[in-house]
Amino acid sequence: MKQHILVVEDEKSIQNIVRIYLENAGYLVTCLDDGIAGLAWAQQNQPDLVVLDLNLPSMDGLEVAARLRQVSDVYILMLTARGEEEDRILGLRLGADDYLAKPFSPRELVARVETILRRSRRGTPTLNEALRFAHLTINNTTHEATADGQLLDLTLTEFQLLWAMAQHAGLVLTRDQLIEQVWGANFYGNERVVDVYVGQVRRKLQDATGELLIQTVRGVGYKFADGKQA
Ligand code: CA
Fold first, then answer.
1. Ligand 1 centroid – CA 35 distance (Å)
2. How far apart are CA 126 and CA 180, in angstroms?
C-alpha cells in the first residue's frame, strides 16, 4: 500500500512541484492550502507524514503542528523561510520531526521524507533491541521507552536521541556525535537544534521519574546516566 503524504502549503507553485516529485517517488499525495483544512484532514485521514508550511492562511503551521501533535504521532516535516530560525526551533519543540528551509530542491524534500519514513521501519532487529536501566527501558524494535513503567510520549527524533545516548550510558557524547547518530547526513541546522531536542527529552524523563537522567557536561556535550543496568 502506498504511503500517504499530506502537503499543506498555500503557494501553488511549490504545492505542484512537491506533489509531482512525491508522486514520482511512489507516494499518494493530498495537497491543501490552509491550516485549518489541513489539520482537519490530517485528523480524519491519518496520513503517514505531513509536509507543513509555516506561513499559512487561517492557522499557521506552528499551531497546526502543536494541535496535530496533541492527537497524533504523524511525522511532520516543516517548511520554513530563510531567517525563521526561532520558528524552526519552536516547530521542533512542538514536535516536528524535521524541517527544510525555503528555497529547497524538491529532490531534497523527497530525500528527507524518505529518511523520516525509513527511520520508522528499520526492519532488522539488532542484538541490543532493548536497554534496561534503573528507571528506563528503551526498546529499539518497538520504538517505545518506559520510565518507571510509564510509557513515555516521545517523537521519533526524541526517541532516537534517547537511544543514541542510552547506548553510551555513562559516557559523554558531543553534539557532533549525537548529530551523526541521530540525523546523519540529513542534518542542516546548527547545534542549538541538538540542545532543543536534548532539553525536551530531559524534561520528559524528569517529569516521569523526578530524576535528572541526562546531564550537561559543560563545553563537551551530554551524558545519560540512569543507575546501573539491570
Ligand atoms: Ca506559505
1. 10
2. 19
Distance 190 CA to ligand 1 centre (A): 24
pLDDT digits (tens, 9 = 90+) for 123-159: 433 445 788 888 999 988 788 899 988 999 998 889 9
Residues lining ion ligand 1 (Cβ < 5 A) are: 10, 53, 55
The Å distance, Cα 43 to ligand 1 centre, comes to 21
What's the predicted TM-score (pTM) here?
Answer: 0.59
CA-based radius of gyration for the chain: 18
75 Cα to the center of ligand 1, angstroms: 19
* pLDDT digit string, tens, across residues 194-207: 999 999 999 999 99
Distance 30 CA to ligand 1 centre (A): 16
Helix (H) / strand (E) element for 91: namely helix 85-93
Q: What burial letters (b/e) apply to 22-55, b meaning 16+ CB within 10 Å?
A: beebebebbbbbbbbbbbebbeeeebbbbbbbbb
Distance (angstroms) between ligand 1 centre and the Cα of 11 equals 6
User: What is the three-state SS of 45-57?
Assistant: HCCCEEEEECCCC
Q: Helices (DSSP H) in 121-230: which residue ranges?
A: 156-167, 175-182, 191-209
